[in-house]
Design brief:
With about 400 residues, the protein is of the alpha/beta class. The chain has helices at about 10-20, 160-165, 205-215, 230-245, 260-270, 300-320, 375, 400-405, and strands spanning about 25-30, 45, 55, 60-65, 75-80, 95-100, 110-115, 115-120, 125, 135, 150, 170-175, 180-185, 190, 200, 220-225, 245-250, 270-275, 280, 285-290, 290-295, 330-335, 345-355, 360-365, 380-385, 395-400. Helix content is about 20%, strand content about 30%.
């Protein structure tokens, strides 16, 4: 395979994302307690102001600053306003005992911290001139009624769930989760829990993919291990296309004699991408079976992990209706050297080492595409562009798993 026959990842991603079908436009109501991770199908507006009324940010005394003109003065305590109650209009020349979150009484314009006073049951002595507005949380200062709080296509984070609850919203409209079919080709594969015979290995890719898809909140259809036969492969693909919104296979896309995925997909649909200039992940393919999108991932487990994160995940997020689909990356210094430039863009499994005055990336010693330990050991991926050498201290794009998964 010559270099120029491999598609660059940027071109592959552009092609893939251009071809996102909108299978996942069905919308459903989701209660707040089930809504984390869901993509919202319509913008969410606030029906109320937050806070809904001027209230005290502190435990202390509500006063009218106009009636206080010397820093040391003593006022009668005319009422007590705990949170959850509403006070009366402040009698001129008095103070109201007030607690955090309680409504500011009419006629008051500042709250003096309890710690800045001396007080008993009847009176309070103020030691500092208050400023108008101090320690008051104004009505609507966080959210104004009618404000758009979250846009359509936004994927809900845990903190958003609390935000929605604070607006009195019990449920949201979200896109129905995509259903993704997983199939794994290989005569050598055996499910974990079974006995290995000579020449066999445990099938792990479907577990990696299932876990990655679960983290995206998607439904999974596991079609199991498929024999390295053209017929069996085609039958599995057709079944997947009938039942799922998207198909992901692993293995069988190299150029070996037992690699039937290309043939089977070409018979049942078509491939529009075949082999990428990335490492790991060169034997990657994309196309469709019928009108269902198909990703043919490599067999090697690390290649499955990397190509899913870099290519399949953005696609699925877009198909799911999400607007923010690309992973965050950071420029971090290399703590290593690469003397030989590569002809494919490389995704190294690296750790981020931090010391007091610097942080740098260190690669796992064995970057083989079958070495799964590299993925558990690492904090993320470092990107080495095509034809690049790396010197100590060169800045590299680092994609932490915390943002990728
Ligand atoms: P292939 O592309 O089918 O030639 O597979 C490449 C390598 O990945 C071979 O060493 C396979 O044994 C391995 N492999 C393929 N599928 C899986 C799987 N589902 N789980 C673990 N290893 C796999
Ligand atoms: Mg195989």
């Amino acid at each position: 395979m010559k270099k120029h026959e491999l598609t660059a990842i940027e071109d592959a991603l552009e092609h893939i994302l251009r071809n996102v079908s909108s299978a996942a436009t069905a919308v459903e109501d989701v209660v707040l307690s089930q809504a984390v991770g869901r993509v919202i199908a319509e913008a969410i507006k606030a029906d109320i102001n937050v806070p809904g009324y001027d209230n005290s940010a502190m435990d202390g005394f509500a006063v009218n600053t106009a009636s206080i003109n010397q820093s040391e003065c003593t006022l009668a305590i005319s009422q007590t306003i705990p949170a959850g109650s509403t006070g009366n209009k402040l009698e001129p020349g008095t103070a109201a005992r007030i607690f955090t979150g309680a409504p500011i009484p009419a006629g008051a314009d500042a709250v003096i911290l309890q710690e800045d006073t001396e007080f008993d049951e009847q009176k309070v002595t103020i030691k500092q001139l208050p400023e108008a507005g101090q320690n008051i949380r104004l009505c609507g200062h966080d959210i104004r009624q009618g404000d758009v709080i979250l846009d359509q296509g936004y994927k809900l984070l845990p903190q958003d769930i609390g935000l929605l609850a604070s607006l009195g919203i019990p449920q949201i409209k979200a896109y129905k989760p995509l259903k993704v079919a997983i199939l794994n080709t290989g005569d050598e594969l055996v499910a974990p829990g079974e006995r290995l015979s000579p020449g066999q290995i445990y099938e792990s890719n479907s577990f990696t993919l299932e876990a990655l898809l679960k983290a995206l909140g998607m439904e999974i259809l596991k079609l199991g291990i498929v024999k390295d036969e053209r017929q069996a492969t085609e039958a599995a693909l057709l079944k997947a296309a009938e039942e799922a919104d998207c198909i992901i296979s692993s293995g069988g896309v190299s150029v070996g004699e037992a690699d039937f995925v290309k043939e089977a997909v070409s018979a049942a649909g078509e491939l529009s991408l075949w082999k990428l200039a990335i490492k790991p992940g060169k034997p990657f393919s994309f196309g469709q079976v019928g009108n269902i999108p198909f990703f043919g991932l490599p067999g090697n487990p690390v290649a499955v992990f990397v190509t899913f994160l870099m290519l399949v995940k953005p696609y699925l997020l877009k198909m799911q209706g999400a607007k923010n689909i690309h992973p965050e990356s950071y420029r971090i210094a290399a703590g290593f050297e690469l003397a030989e430039p590569g002809s494919r863009q490389e995704y190294l499994r690296v750790r981020l080492h931090k010391s007091r005055d610097k942080q740098e990336l260190q690669p796992f010693p064995n970057q083989g595409s079958s070495v799964m330990t590299s993925t558990s050991w690492a904090d993320g991926l470092a990107v080495i562009p095509i034809n690049s050498k790396v010197k100590q201290g060169d800045l590299l794009d680092f994609l932490p798993f915390t943002g990728l998964l």
